Amino acid sequence: MKAIICQEPGRFELVDRPEPIPGPGEALLRIHRVGICGTDLHAYAGNQAFFSYPRILGHELSAEIVSVPDNPQGLRAGDRVIVMPYVSCGECVACRVGKTNCCRNMQVLGVHIDGGMQEYITLSPSLLLPAGDLSHEETAVVEPLAIGAHALRRAGVVAGEYIVVVGCGPIGIGLMALARHAGCEVIALETNPDRLAFVRRHLRLEHALSADESTIERIAAITGGDLATAVFDATGHPRALENGVKYMAHGGRYVLVGLSKGNLVFNHPEIHARETTLLCSRNATLEDFLTVRDFLARDRFPTAAFITHTTGFPGMIGCFNNWTQPATGVIKAMVRWADETALIP
Question: Is the pTM of this model over 0.90?
């Protein structure tokens, strides 16, 4: 079978590998779609935390079961499935209290262990969910949307409250769409005008602001002077992560969804005066995946517009550099397999 390996920062290699043989209790999957996310882009650039080379990238997956042992979910050969790419140990303190998303011994496909940028992969059926009537494209975007679902659940958002989401990349867009669905009043912040235009048009956001020196005043005007009761950073950019608390109301919650590789510095009097609840949000759990599957099944998300760039598997290496450049208009790039027509380079 074919696989693409990121051998080192800035270098992919197309290789032939033996088709994997399922071990005891494992399912064999054929990969149909691989979404490209910020983790993949950072790994290619050499600035992804928790990462080592060489590595097969890819954890936003749509797959079809080739073979599967008996399993509690009732999954069968031929089923299309959502892949939960977080392999947890089930034994550590986090797993014992149901926080498998931050397992102490976490292994994420495409980060700690090889991911889905290959024709076939073997996984435990416990990591698979039936996709139902979702398309391959919808199935592959469940994981990034589940990141947003988990962040919203961490923050305990309620209908009617004003929230700020910093960053209109794929994670931020999913977070905004789910927050709107939950009844929140969403204020988007972004420096890229094309991405602001996207959320205005496709998410119908009334408040999509270009981040500048007047941002705080404009958020205050929208919220009646209160600022946002919850702020989410979906950029991972150090300066954005450090500044986000300024948009937050007194008594509010600040949720770090984006991941920076380095240190962050906060002004203690500023966060103390607001009695800031500072939360980090990592990965997602089964509950979040089920929430997003239902959300997509109800046609609540503009998947077709969200996936801006698509190529067949052989063309991925040649396209990847373009996908690292926001100027190309990329929001979500997706890889199809060789027997499925390539669309947009």
Answer: yes
